Amino acid sequence: MTSSPTSQAGTAIETVKTDVLIIGGGATGTGIMRDLALRSVHCRLIDKQDLCAGASGGNHGLLHSGARYVLSDPHSASECREEGEILKRTSSQCIENTGGLFVAVKGDDEGFIRDFPALCQAAGIPVQELTPKEALELEPQLSKDIIAAYAVPDATIDPFRLALENVNHARELNDSTYHPHTTLCDFEIGDGRIIAAFCRDSRTGKELRIVAKQYVNAGGAWAMDIARLAGCNDVNLLYSKGTLLISHDRLTTRVINRLRPPADGDILVPGGTVSVLGTTSLRTDDLENVRPTIAEVDKNVVEGTAMVPALAHARYIRAFSRVRPLVQHGDDQNDRNVARSFALMNHEDQNLNNFCTITGGKLTTFRLMAEKTSDLVAKRLGNTEPCTTATTPLPGGQACKWTEPGASPKYWYEANNSEDMILCECEMVPQSAIDQIVLCAPGAENEMTLEAIALRSRAGKGPCQGSFCGIRIASYLYDRGYYQDTTGLHHMKSFFNERFKGLRTIIWGQQAAQMELAEALHCGLLGLDRLEEKKTNKADNE
Amino acid sequence: MTYEKREFIADLAVIGSGLAGMAASIFALKRGISTAQAGNTGALAYTTGYLDLLGDAGTGAAEHLGDPWAGIRELQKSQPNHPLARVPENDIHEAFTEFTSFISECGIAYGAPGKVNLKALTPAGTTKPTFSVPATMQPGVDALASQARCVIIDFKGLRGFSGRQVVANLKDRWPGLTTERVSFPDMPMGEIYPEVMARALEVPGTREKLADAIKSVRGDAQVIGLPAILGMHNPDLVMTELSRLLGCPVFEIPTMPPSVPGIRLREMFEQVFPKKGLTLVPQQKVRSVEFDTDSVQLVLADNHGPIIIHAKAVILATGRFLSGGLEAEQTGIVEPLVNLPVAQPTSRDSWYSMEYMGRDGHAIHQCGIRVDDAFRPLDKDGKVVDPRLFAAGVILAHQDWIRGRCGAGVAISSAYRAVQGAEQIILQKNN
Ligand SMILES: Cc1cc2nc3c(=O)[nH]c(=O)nc-3n(C[C@H](O)[C@H](O)[C@H](O)COP(=O)(O)OP(=O)(O)OC[C@H]3O[C@@H](n4cnc5c(N)ncnc54)[C@H](O)[C@@H]3O)c2cc1C
Question: Which residues of A touch B348 (CB under 8 A)?
Fold first, then answer.
């Protein structure tokens, strides 16, 4: 390469430099960013959408004790136990230490029930047997048909907070940078090395060239596609789609697992004021149009009802789906039996020595995945500093705190500022939260989308699912001058379209009235359905 | 404590106090029919005050309808089951005229229905097609049309209404539009509410102070726009007085619901109807309806105990999901009060399309009660359920009031026909 690269439009492409480029802003990618920053390595992190756009933003939020995997994958079980313990010590602001129960109902496999405690003990997982009566006293919503129950140290984890804190800490440590809505499109390769990564801003279409010493593919389910862009054919993934449901109320204090080999609708995880029920598991080839179906939703409800009968008549406020990447080794037919451990590939046999891929695994094990990856990267860079994430507490960033359920009202009451109006009434998110997020949250920018704001706060997470607060927050952003023309209306439209994907399959009962009102406001009153298509910058560039 | 059971006897019972129920009562009063009305206010409080007739006939046209009557003629051809296609045009016109002149006489002046749709302003700075607007909003429609130099006034502490937003979205279409922020007179610091502001503006002293505040920022504006806060019971007087003080027209833009114009209508009905001899049991859900041989009985209760209303005919105007007239269960959509069959798609999977704001809208909105041309509900076999039962408003099938921008149009027109039908039944019974 001699001349400086130019874009298709003929203009010079901006080039930026860094030690390490990390592709993928999920738990793993952000974990690597922090791990490396703690070793004084500068990183740039890109995500084609935003933090937690992949599996990290669409999972159960269960910090596994490991008990779920004691039969199918004892190695993962022990890994989960160890990692769970570390995270509870170092990252407590992201974790609710709820505890968990495994419960069996009439008809469940007696052999599995009998073997379960010994299997847990073998993996080092503390387990305590409870009588059905004791379990019902702890969790009154459990079915009266319970025949066995065990308590295990399950907990819940907020992946959004985690990713935001990781990025925030890395930024504080050595000015490592996060680039939202930046898609990796191609690599420039020569001499057994990646020379540069070509990226495109998926909002503006602007191209960016990133030159790094090392390149890390933390693309989760997209890791195979990314590896292929670098000419590597050694990442083989299968995709399994999982669908989950969020109930309007929190039904249990603890995580409730069905005491049977993993199957559909067998985990109920509390999160703040709601509960999350899931999951289903379906093979898919499609990574881009992953949406819940009515059949999956109904399946979860039917299965979950066996453990917690109230799920049959609960009000649901959202359903969502994401894809699990399954690293393919053999040709096992049952996706749930595929080892849930992760894979780190150094691609040296693909003739590249500055590229690696990390995928698979679990949210619970993201830190360990980041450690192993960072060890490899540091070694290649000649950096001898050891990993410190197992002991260094994750500091709490000011602008990262708004994802915590119940936190907004607390801060708001404490501040007692009558000028600070509430914009999201379901979750009590005030103007000051929006101000802080727009000014200094990781990935903040001048004209932020409503999705980006919602990801960094509780806005839109309540029963109205953003249908009111989306209007109010947009209005506020106009008022503060962040939105200056009809682009703001397009942001509203795309936010409501996005939220709808999570609503479509659960619109019955009260949610039908909610949805009717929302559409009456969005379309009938504001006319967003008739918004003229805006010419985007992208179109201008083409 | 035991309560006395109260019984009311009327010729007509109207169930539902949304726009359709209110319209039905107005038409019945006009015809001298003794009427009892019960039921929740429904979506009335969510209205902006704009009365839509028809903004989109579902032809896929890029623009909204300028001429709603042409749209209705289109519906007669392409969607003959649409409620608006089943009411003669003259009757629709007559219904709107009767409705708007009644509320105008009662103190909330409305423009007489005309030939074309108006382009009315929304709080987001978009416009919507509508048919008849309150007199307090008409100067806004005119100012946009004439491109007058206009200043939008918003208020410190009033959430959800931003003049900057209105201007940002309209500036390309309306270069003479600007905005200024003032403090509302005599309000404490912090958040202020449209309802409170509206009531405060009924006091002359507050109006004068507000006019002074506006004068200092209005610049060379020829017309002044405000959020909908111009009084609760006397909006026309408040508007006239404020324009006199400012020496130019002023107008209101609806705020996000529940907004003052909706509350105005509700409070007006609740005051006026009893004075005109109508038995009104507001805000109470009717529990059951029984069709006996000699009367229809509505069973309900309020704070003072059980109530039974006996009537010769009944109009079901209970609205859709938002008002409880229809209920969506996981397995299907039901009409919970009379248990009428609901026309609906075969599975829940067809209720909503994949795209929220897709052009074709959603099948769920087309579901509802099927009726004959006299707006009598039909059973599964297409037979009239009971000759004394009529249905009106958005509970009706084969219309999408949201995408069609035809909520008030369907409500007022179908109520008009339902009352005509009920009147005939009542006349027969009385003979
Ligand atoms: C339904 C479901 C339930 C789960 N439940 C749990 C649970 O309860 N507990 C648990 O521990 N684990 C759970 N998991 C697993 C866990 O969610 C994942 O293991 C973890 O989040 C993976 O994180 P990641 O960062 O590796 O991948 P991801 O979070 O998928 O991140 C990959 C990122 O890469 C970005 N990307 C892709 N291509 C490009 C490109 N070309 N350029 C730029 N960026 C790109 C994507 O936008 C995405 O943000 C669940 C998974 C699923 C699907």
Answer: 294, 508
Label residue A336 by pLDDT band (50, 70, 90). Answer: low
Residue A82 is assigned to a structural domain of this protein: no
Largest CA distance in chain A: 76
- Cα A223 to ligand 1 centre (Å): 10
- Three-state SS string over A308-362 comes to CHHHHCCCEEEEEEEEEEEECCCCCCCCCCCCCCEEEECCHHHCCCCEEEEEECC
> Both tokens of residue A61?
């939020």
Asked if A45 and A120 sit in the same domain, the reply is: no
- From A497's Cα to the closest Cα of chain B, the distance in A is 5
Query: Which chain A residues are within 8 Å of B162, Cβ to Cβ?
Result: 475-476, 478-479
Residue B144 CB coordination number (10 Å): 22
Residue A497: closest CA among A473, A482, A518: A518
Residue A499 shares a structural domain with residue A424: yes
Two tokens, residue A24: 């993928």
B329 touches chain A (CB under 8 A): yes
CA-based nearest residue to A478, from B194, B123, B46: B123
Number of neighbours of residue B134 by Cβ within 10 angstroms? 28
Average pLDDT of chain A is 93
Which residues constitute the domain of residue A133?
94-156+238-327
**Structural domains in chain B, sorted by start:** 6-107+263-430 (3.50.50.60), 138-253 (3.40.50)
What 3-state DSSP class applies to B7?
A: strand
A418 assigned to some structural domain = yes
**pLDDT given at position A98:** 97
Report yes or no: B328 at the A interface, CB cutoff 8 Å.
yes
Angstrom distance (rounded) from CA A215 to CA A232: 13
Q: Would A88 be classed as within a structural domain?
A: no
A206-224 average pLDDT score: 98
Dihedral, B400, B404, B410, B411 alpha carbons, nearest 10: 80
The protein residue whose alpha carbon is closest to atom 51 in ligand 1 is A59
Q: How far is B277 from chain A (nearest CA, A)?
A: 33
Environment class of A380 (CB within 10 Å of its CB; exposed 0-12, middle 13-18, buried 19+) = middle
Task: Clarify whether residues A117 and A196 are in a common domain.
Answer: no
Residues A414, A446, single domain; the answer is yes
What's the confidence (pLDDT) of residue B429?
Answer: 86
The answer to the question of residue A60 being in a domain is no
Beta-carbon separation of A468 and B256 below 8 A = yes
- Model confidence pLDDT, tens digit, residues A355-401: 999 999 999 999 999 999 999 999 999 999 999 999 999 999 989 99
Mutate to test the pocket of ligand 1, among A34, A362, A373 (most ligand atoms within 8 A of CB): A362
DSSP 8-state secondary structure symbol assigned to residue B132: B
What is the SS3 string spanning B16-77? Answer: CCCHHHHHHHHHHHHCCCCEEEEECCHHHHHCCCCECCCCCCCCCCCCCCCCHHHHHHHHHH
Domain count, chain A: 3
Write the CATH number for A294: 3.30.9.10
Predicted complex ipTM exceeds 0.85: yes
Q: How far is B267 from chain A (nearest CA, A)?
A: 22
Q: Positive or negative CA dihedral for A521, A527, A530, A533?
A: negative
Same domain, A425 and A414: yes
Compute the count of residue pairs across chains A and B with CB atoms less than 8 Å apart. 140
Q: Does A527 touch chain B (CB under 8 A)?
A: yes
pLDDT tens-digit series, residues A114-169: 999 999 999 999 999 999 999 999 999 999 999 999 999 999 999 999 999 999 99
Residues A174 and A243 in one domain: no
Alpha-carbon gap, residue B180 to B164, rounded angstroms: 8
Q: Verify that A511 and A466 share a domain, yes or no.
A: yes
Number of Cβ atoms within 10 Å of the Cβ of B334: 15
Q: Return the best residue to mutate from A34, A46, A60 for the ligand 1 pocket (most ligand atoms within 8 A of CB).
A: A60
Q: Are residues A206 and A139 in the same domain?
A: no
